[in-house]
């Protein structure tokens, strides 16, 4: 028996076609579906392309969007366009409250990636009824869009990392969420969840809440040590110590577009982390700190070394507070990570603003405006 469908309106059987040259009669509704979803996919890609082009100034990502749009256009033939019936389409009256608002750039991009991917899936399935090659063509295109989405998210994470000047590493606190939110309100853009002693269930709950809070403010969220926990809460990456998983293994588990940081205390550890593929390194402890019990301070000399030799972003860390921040900056630090200076502060917002103002002033004097501009 031939494959196809029964058209009740026309009281007849419409066969499934095998090729463009043999398609014969194709149900008009299928042409309308293909036309609508070709439009939907092209529109969504154009929105993504505009950000890649004007927001990120990224030629490679912009070109991939353009190529995808042009390939879609080759399938959008006059026959499909002629099937369009906008006045008779009941879908033009359907809407949802979420379509009327976009809370931030990330939600805008994600909404349009979903729009494109859904449209391509529809084109893949209904296209099989219209042209023998259409299903496989849109299947491959859908995979390309998945890759584009990962590349764009990875690129944005790296851009935000490079622009981050202040990094908060948390320690257990009763009102931790409130403290972190206050610091985020002060301009903090990078947070690491660190709790060595909590039960896994509590760690998951705290990490999940912090991740959602950070993303609400457009900040990056990382998890200390635990790759599994980072994956579970959809964190932006992990921070590893010298005794944790090798960077290479963490990368295999997390994928190519997540952030991996690594603690270093000397030049040898720095070079090993860089060669291993770390996206950034911690440089310290600059001063002795109770969060690293028994570990001697690396001192300002290591900060000076990092300023001269690290080709990737690095954060001076360890005992840094409002009283010694300028000494660390004078040694060459452009980014700092703190723990107690914010977690134990009476006014975390003001402390965060102070740190950022001191770092920004140095960046401007150093002719590095990209570090002083907030990330959109």
UniProtKB/TrEMBL annotation:
<dbReference type="GO" id="GO:0009228">
    <property type="term" value="P:thiamine biosynthetic process"/>
</dbReference>
<dbReference type="GO" id="GO:0009229">
    <property type="term" value="P:thiamine diphosphate biosynthetic process"/>
</dbReference>
<feature type="binding site">
    <location>
        <position position="292"/>
    </location>
    <ligand>
        <name>4-amino-2-methyl-5-(diphosphooxymethyl)pyrimidine</name>
    </ligand>
</feature>
<comment type="pathway">
    <text>Cofactor biosynthesis; thiamine diphosphate biosynthesis; thiamine phosphate from 4-amino-2-methyl-5-diphosphomethylpyrimidine and 4-methyl-5-(2-phosphoethyl)-thiazole: step 1/1.</text>
</comment>
<dbReference type="InterPro" id="IPR036206">
    <property type="entry name" value="ThiamineP_synth_sf"/>
</dbReference>
<feature type="binding site">
    <location>
        <begin position="289"/>
        <end position="291"/>
    </location>
    <ligand>
        <name>2-[(2R,5Z)-2-carboxy-4-methylthiazol-5(2H)-ylidene]ethyl phosphate</name>
    </ligand>
</feature>
<dbReference type="GO" id="GO:0005737">
    <property type="term" value="C:cytoplasm"/>
</dbReference>
<comment type="similarity">
    <text>Belongs to the thiamine-phosphate synthase family.</text>
</comment>
<feature type="binding site">
    <location>
        <position position="224"/>
    </location>
    <ligand>
        <name>4-amino-2-methyl-5-(diphosphooxymethyl)pyrimidine</name>
    </ligand>
</feature>
<feature type="region of interest" description="Disordered">
    <location>
        <begin position="77"/>
        <end position="101"/>
    </location>
</feature>
<feature type="region of interest" description="Thiamine-phosphate synthase">
    <location>
        <begin position="145"/>
        <end position="376"/>
    </location>
</feature>
<dbReference type="InterPro" id="IPR022998">
    <property type="entry name" value="ThiamineP_synth_TenI"/>
</dbReference>
<feature type="binding site">
    <location>
        <position position="319"/>
    </location>
    <ligand>
        <name>2-[(2R,5Z)-2-carboxy-4-methylthiazol-5(2H)-ylidene]ethyl phosphate</name>
    </ligand>
</feature>
<feature type="domain" description="Thiamine phosphate synthase/TenI">
    <location>
        <begin position="166"/>
        <end position="342"/>
    </location>
</feature>
<feature type="binding site">
    <location>
        <position position="244"/>
    </location>
    <ligand>
        <name>Mg(2+)</name>
    </ligand>
</feature>
<dbReference type="Pfam" id="PF17792">
    <property type="entry name" value="ThiD2"/>
</dbReference>
<comment type="function">
    <text>Condenses 4-methyl-5-(beta-hydroxyethyl)thiazole monophosphate (THZ-P) and 2-methyl-4-amino-5-hydroxymethyl pyrimidine pyrophosphate (HMP-PP) to form thiamine monophosphate (TMP).</text>
</comment>
<dbReference type="InterPro" id="IPR016229">
    <property type="entry name" value="TMP_synthase_cyanobac_bac"/>
</dbReference>
<dbReference type="InterPro" id="IPR013785">
    <property type="entry name" value="Aldolase_TIM"/>
</dbReference>
<feature type="domain" description="ThiD2">
    <location>
        <begin position="32"/>
        <end position="150"/>
    </location>
</feature>
<feature type="binding site">
    <location>
        <position position="225"/>
    </location>
    <ligand>
        <name>Mg(2+)</name>
    </ligand>
</feature>
<dbReference type="Pfam" id="PF02581">
    <property type="entry name" value="TMP-TENI"/>
</dbReference>
<keyword id="KW-0460">Magnesium</keyword>
<feature type="compositionally biased region" description="Basic and acidic residues">
    <location>
        <begin position="78"/>
        <end position="87"/>
    </location>
</feature>
<feature type="region of interest" description="Unknown">
    <location>
        <begin position="1"/>
        <end position="144"/>
    </location>
</feature>
<feature type="binding site">
    <location>
        <begin position="192"/>
        <end position="196"/>
    </location>
    <ligand>
        <name>4-amino-2-methyl-5-(diphosphooxymethyl)pyrimidine</name>
    </ligand>
</feature>
<keyword id="KW-0784">Thiamine biosynthesis</keyword>
<dbReference type="GO" id="GO:0000287">
    <property type="term" value="F:magnesium ion binding"/>
</dbReference>
<dbReference type="InterPro" id="IPR041397">
    <property type="entry name" value="ThiD2"/>
</dbReference>
<keyword id="KW-0479">Metal-binding</keyword>
<feature type="binding site">
    <location>
        <position position="263"/>
    </location>
    <ligand>
        <name>4-amino-2-methyl-5-(diphosphooxymethyl)pyrimidine</name>
    </ligand>
</feature>
<keyword id="KW-0808">Transferase</keyword>
<dbReference type="InterPro" id="IPR034291">
    <property type="entry name" value="TMP_synthase"/>
</dbReference>
<dbReference type="GO" id="GO:0004789">
    <property type="term" value="F:thiamine-phosphate diphosphorylase activity"/>
</dbReference>
<protein>
    <recommendedName>
        <fullName>Thiamine-phosphate synthase</fullName>
        <ecNumber>2.5.1.3</ecNumber>
    </recommendedName>
</protein>
């Amino acid at each position: 028996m031939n494959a196809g469908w029964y058209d009740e309106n026309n009281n007849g059987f419409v066969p499934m076609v095998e090729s463009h040259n043999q398609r014969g009669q194709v149900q008009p509704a299928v042409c309308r579906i293909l036309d609508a979803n070709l439009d939907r996919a092209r529109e969504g890609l154009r929105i993504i392309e505009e950000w890649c082009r004007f927001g990120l100034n990224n030629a490679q990502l912009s070109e991939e969007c353009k190529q995808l749009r042009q390939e879609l256009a080759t399938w959008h033939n006059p026959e499909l366009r002629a099937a369009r019936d906008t006045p008779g389409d009941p879908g033009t009256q359907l809407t949802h409250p979420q379509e009327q608002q976009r809370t931030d750039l990330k939600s805008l991009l994600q909404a349009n990636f979903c729009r494109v991917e859904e449209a391509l899936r529809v084109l893949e399935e209904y296209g099989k009824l219209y042209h023998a090659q259409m299903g496989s063509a849109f299947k491959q295109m859908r995979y390309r869009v998945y890759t584009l989405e990962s590349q764009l998210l990875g690129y944005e994470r790296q851009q935000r990392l490079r622009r981050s000047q202040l990094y908060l590493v948390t320690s257990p606190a009763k009102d931790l969420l409130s403290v972190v939110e206050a610091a985020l309100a002060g301009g903090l853009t990078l947070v690491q969840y660190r709790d060595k002693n909590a039960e896994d269930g509590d760690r998951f709950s705290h990490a999940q809440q912090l991740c959602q809070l950070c993303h609400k403010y457009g900040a990056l969220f990382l998890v200390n040590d635990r790759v599994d926990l980072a994956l579970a809460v959809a964190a932006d990456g992990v921070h590893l110590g010298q005794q944790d998983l090798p960077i290479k293994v963490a990368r295999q588990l997390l994928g190519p577009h997540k952030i991996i940081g690594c603690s270093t205390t000397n030049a040898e550890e720095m070079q090993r982390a860089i060669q291993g593929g770390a996206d950034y390194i911690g440089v310290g402890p600059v001063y002795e700190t109770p969060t690293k019990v028994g570990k001697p301070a690396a001192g300002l000399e290591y900060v000076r070394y990092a300023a001269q030799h690290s080709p990737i972003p690095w954060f001076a860390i360890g005992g840094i507070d409002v009283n010694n921040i300028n000494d660390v900056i004078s040694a060459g630090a452009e980014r700092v990570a703190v723990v107690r200076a914010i977690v134990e502060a009476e006014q975390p917002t003001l402390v965060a603003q102070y740190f950022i103002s001191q770092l920004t002033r140095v960046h401007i004097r150093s002719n590095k405006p990209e570090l002083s501009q907030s990330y959109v």
